[in-house]
Each structure stands twice: as C-alpha cells, then as structure tokens.
DNA sequence: TCTCTTCCTGACCGTATGGTCAAGATGAAG
DNA sequence: CTTCATCTTGACCATACGGTCAGGAAGAGA
C-alpha cells in the first residue's frame, strides 16, 4: 500500500542494494543454513559493509524472511501452467517442466526453502497453514477432476503432489550429490533434458496419463 | 578391528553415553542444522554437562561426523533388499518400502543427511565419491539388467534411483510440511500405508514393472 | 546556495559459543 | 586398602557474532 513508485535516484539505489543483498543472502543461507550464515559473510558477498545490511534489513531474521518469501512466490506460481491444461499429460507435464526449470535456475532458493521446512518452518509456518494449504486443496481438486473424467488412473492427488515436489526439487536440493555422481561436473543441457524426460516419463506413465 | 569388546562396567558406561549423546545430537542437528546447533543444547537434551560431551567427542565437528556416518550406513543397507529380488516389482517395491520405513523411523537422521548434502557435503564428500558412487553404479547396473531382460520399461537407471531417493526421503525431510497439510497431525499408520502404496503404485507402474 | 532527508560506515558493545582445564569422583586390579 | 586409569564437571577463556550508533557523505527540493 502507498509507497508511491516515485522513480528517482534514491529509489533506484534502494532497490538495487536490496536486490544485491537478497541475492547474496540467498546464496549464503543456501550454503550455510540460517544458523551457519553470518551477516559479515553476506556483506562480503554483496560487497557492502555489514552495517549497511542492517540499514536495509533490521535483523538477520528479517533478511532471511524476505529470502524465503521470494522463493515461496516463485514456487507457488509454477503451478499456474496446470490450471488451464486440458488434461494431466499436458498439465502435469508442464508443471514438472516448470519445477525442474526452477530447480535449475534457482537452486539456492530451493535449498533455503528446503532448509526452512526441514527445520519446522519457523518463519513461514503461517503461509503453510493458509496459502499453501489452499493451493494444495485447489490442485488436488483439479487432479481429482481429471481422475473422475477418466483422464488418468486413480491415484491419491496429495501424494502425487508430494511426489512431484520431491522429484523436481531433488535436482536442486541434492544437486551436489548428483553432480558428484556425475563425475563432479554439473549436468549439461543435454543431461538436464534427459532428467526432465525421465521424470515426466515415469510419472506420467505412472499415473496413466500417457 | 581391535577394541576388544571386553564387557565391563567401564565400556558399558562409554557405550551408553556415546549413544545418548549421538541420539541427542541427531535430534538437535536435525532441528537446527550444524550451524544452529549448540553443544550446550545437545548436552541439555542428553541430560549431561557440556564438558562431558567434549570428553567423548573432541569437537562439534567430530560429533556431527559420527551422526552423519551413522545415517549413511542405514541408508546404504536399505538397498540390500533389491539385490536378491527376482525382478523390479519385488526389488524396487521392497526398496521403496524399506526407504519409506527409514523416513518414518529415522526422520532426524534423514534431515541431517539432507542438510549435509545440501550444504555441499563438507564432511562426507569422500564417501560420496567412493562408497556412494560404487553403490550407485552397482544398482544402476542391476536395473539395467532388468531392462535388458524385458522385465521393465526402458528408463534411465540413475534418474530412477534419484526419484526413489527423492520421493521416499521427502516424507522425512518435508515431514513438517506434510504434517501441516494433514491438519497439523502426523500421518497415522493408515496414512503411512497409503503413502507407501501411492509411491509404489505410481513408480512401479511408471517403470512398467506392473 | 541552503536545508532536509536518506544513505553510508568504522568503531564499538554485550552476549553466546566452542573449547579448556584442574580437581574431584568412581570403577578396576592387585 | 592402595593404586591407577577412567570418568565427571563447574568455572573459566578467547573469539565471533548480531546488532548499535554517531557522525559524515550524498541526493532532493526550494
């Protein structure tokens, strides 16, 4: 509300620095966890003095909260592609594609999110209970409709969603393990394509959508 | 090797306290991460003075290392059930069953493991490069044999393994999220059965094993 | 130019943490 | 009982951390 988007040098500086800090924070939180991350290290990565971080973000927790919220938004909107799909093959296929792409483009964010949830969601518990629950109910309903219409096998919609989250986010959260098993090298474009194809193939066939 | 298992009151005390500390450490590391965990809190959970922890484990890292190694062992041996199975339906089905059971019985250990890998495996990198790589190569070969024998569809064995790890461990690592979506209550026995059945159904069907 | 607000930052502070230690308690062996 | 090794623990220490603050720099508006 308010905060007239008066474009000026001032607002530019603010926006730029906030972004810079948030990016550095995402990286450091992903690598070290909330407890292991230090404001000093985030400051170093951002290339700013530590005191400057506290000018933009009052506390370490405030900064962390913003990082988590950012990822949560991205995460939620990935499912938009499901909504206006004619059936599970297209809808779930596209959702897998979208989430795999998130794992590839935002691995740090995915790790921060995983870490947050693993530790009991201390800062986004309320979102889980409201936004995420509604989201899940809605999408489970969509899947159930596809089942009722005979477009896919009878599976438990919620467990299918869990499986989709698990398999796609695994490529970000356990990216280091996958990289190690891949000879220490990150997946190439071709390998990412193969990964996406594998996930889609097994799941879509598993739910009787193809 | 060595360490004659001379059973005495002394060895008993040592074994008992080490176990006590390791259990407390697993819990605290799972809840707070390595950086967020404190020796004092682990000591409190174990019901021992902090100085006593340092008598049994020189440093926080030593203690952490032991916790991670313990889980790694459990993790590896879960796949034993695959080896003497006649085909993928039994072998992979049993593996899913075993890993789901680990997620249920050792959620803390699973979280510590996930955290360790997510942060770049600072303490078990060498295991990933040796033990885990061999393990993976071996199991991928087994799956490939099943494919060659026409017992299942042509899927990428490694990506199938990733999917198995992801889906089963998700129930431990993201247990809090699942619990929240389940109305704030842990899964009941019946719900765990349904979870296992869902995972098995989709994957086994997805790989053409049933 | 002058004034006001926002931005920047080195120096500082209280606290909590991992780890140490010395002195005492407890069990094993003779 | 004596001796010795193991175990236990309160008190202590150096360090690193999150956070504060005062005073200066730099835009914005007149």
From TrEMBL, chains A, B:
<dbReference type="InterPro" id="IPR036271">
    <property type="entry name" value="Tet_transcr_reg_TetR-rel_C_sf"/>
</dbReference>
<protein>
    <submittedName>
        <fullName>TetR/AcrR family transcriptional regulator</fullName>
    </submittedName>
</protein>
<dbReference type="Pfam" id="PF08362">
    <property type="entry name" value="TetR_C_3"/>
</dbReference>
<dbReference type="Pfam" id="PF00440">
    <property type="entry name" value="TetR_N"/>
</dbReference>
<dbReference type="InterPro" id="IPR013573">
    <property type="entry name" value="Tscrpt_reg_YcdC_C"/>
</dbReference>
<dbReference type="InterPro" id="IPR050109">
    <property type="entry name" value="HTH-type_TetR-like_transc_reg"/>
</dbReference>
<feature type="domain" description="HTH tetR-type">
    <location>
        <begin position="15"/>
        <end position="75"/>
    </location>
</feature>
<dbReference type="InterPro" id="IPR001647">
    <property type="entry name" value="HTH_TetR"/>
</dbReference>
<feature type="DNA-binding region" description="H-T-H motif">
    <location>
        <begin position="38"/>
        <end position="57"/>
    </location>
</feature>
<dbReference type="InterPro" id="IPR009057">
    <property type="entry name" value="Homeodomain-like_sf"/>
</dbReference>
<keyword id="KW-0238">DNA-binding</keyword>
